[in-house]
C-alpha cells in the first residue's frame, strides 16, 4: 500500500512529523466524486469505534503543536467540518486560533507543504473526536526541540488543558532537561505520538510527563463492539513505536517489571494508513485523502481527554488510564518487531508496549476517577403498538458519557413483557389489551442515570388484514423519495445495471474504507402476515474464497435478518425473502448497512424492494 511520508527523517536535534498520506485511493466513478463521501474513517466511525459522546467538551481547548505554517489551515478546516455536518470553527467565532511559538497571530513561520499536511491531520482529528472543543494551532519556527518546546509552553500559556504532539525523534541524554523545560505541566494532558518506525523508543513519547500514544489497525467486525484492532505494523521499518527509555525515569504509576525506566506506550488509537482517517488538505495535498501514522492517534487521544473533562490541577493525566484499565479496549494481537521481553513489542492481554493498556472505550479511562460527572442518555423508541398473543422484541438504546456499563429497569410494561437488566432488551408476549405508560431507566456504577417514557398500546388479537405493499418508492424510480441514504447510493448511472427500471441502490464499491447506509421507516399493521423481499446483486474485486472483507447487513428494527459479503458475489440479481410477521403492530426501520475495507471494491446493489401484508 503506497504512502507518502510528509516529513523527512529527523536529523539529530530535530523532530520529524509522523503523518502519512495514502496515494492509492481512487473513487468508484469520476462523475460521482463530488457527491461521494470522502474515503477514510469519518467522525461518526471514530465515535462508534471508541464509544465516545458527542455532546462533551464545550468551552475546553485542545492545543496542537507543530512546526512551520499552513496558510490554508482555517479554510481547509472549514471544508472538513462542513462536509461532516460539524459546527463552524473559525477565528471569527473564537473556536480556532493559529499562532506562532510566541503567540503572534500575524507573524507566522515559513510555509511548509509537509508539515501543513500534519497540521490538517491534527486539527481534523480534534474536530472529529471533540467537535465542541476550541482549537489552538501553535506553529514553531522550525523542527528543533528548542522551537517546538517553546511552542509547547505557549500552548499551555494560551489556556490549552490538552496538547497533542505528532512528532518526535531519537532519544538523547539531554531529554530529561527538555522534560523539565517543556513538558512538565501539571494539570495538562499532553499526548505524544510513539513514532512510525516500528519497535524502538522515541522522544518526547518517553517523557515521564506525557501520555505516549501507540497505533493500531482498526477494522469493522461482526463482534458485539462492531470493530476490532491489532498492532499497526506494515514492515520492519514501519509501524507503531514502543520501547524502554534509555534516559527517562519510570513514573510511579507505571508498574511493568521488564523496563526499569519509562516504558512507551500508555494507550493507543488508530494509526495504520491502510485503515486510516479522512483528512482535507490543499497546501501540499490536493484535497481529500486518507492519512495515517501515530500522528493520527495522538490528537485522537488528546481529544478523548478533553471529552472526559479538565484534569486535576496537580495531576499528570498520563496516570489516569492505569487506574481505569477496564474502560479500555484491550488490544491483544500483533507486534511491531522482535524484542525481549516480548511485551515490549508484542500485544497481549493487559499492558504491552505497542498499544499500552488499549484504546478508548468511552472516556472513563481518561478521568482522575475522583468525580466522573457522568451523564446517561436513553433514546426514546417512540410509541409502540402490538396485539395480544404477539411476541415482542424492542431494544432500548442508551449511552453513558464516561463509557461505563449500564443497568436497565422499566416500569409500566404491558403484562407479559420484561426488560433484560444487562442488555436493555424488552421481550415477551403481550397478554392483556390496554394502553400502558412505560418508563425505562438506565443507571451506571457511579449512580448517574437517565430515563425516557413512551406509550405502548396493546390491541386484541385476531381480525382481518388488508393486503398491501408498505414501502414507499420500492424500486427507487423516484430517486431518494421515502428513503434515507448516504450520498451517492440511489443512482441511475451505467456503473451497474438495475433489476427493473433505471434507478437502483448501490452501496460501497469504492475499494477503500467506506460505509454506506440505506433505510426506511415502516409501520406493519397489527394482525398481519408480513413478507420482505428485495433483489440483491454483489460484484467484487476480492479474490479470496474464505475471508469476508466487505459486508452488507440487513436489519429490521433491532433484528438482523442477514449479512452478505464478497463471498456471496453473483453474476446477476438474486431475490431474498424474509418473514416479518412477528413485527406486526410495530413501527420499525428497514436498513441496509454496507461496510467496505481499505482495498479491493465490493459493490452491493439493491433493487425492487417490497414489504407486503396479507
TrEMBL record:
Pfam families given in the database record: He_PIG
InterPro entries, alphabetized: Cadg, Cadherin-like_sf, Ig-like_fold, Peptidase_S8/S53_dom_sf, Sedolisin_dom, Tripeptidyl-peptidase_I
PROSITE patterns in the cross-refs: SEDOLISIN (PS51695)
CDD domains: Peptidases_S53
Transmembrane segments: none
UniProt domain Peptidase S53: residue ranges: 40-372
Protein name (Swiss-Prot/TrEMBL): Peptidase S53 domain-containing protein
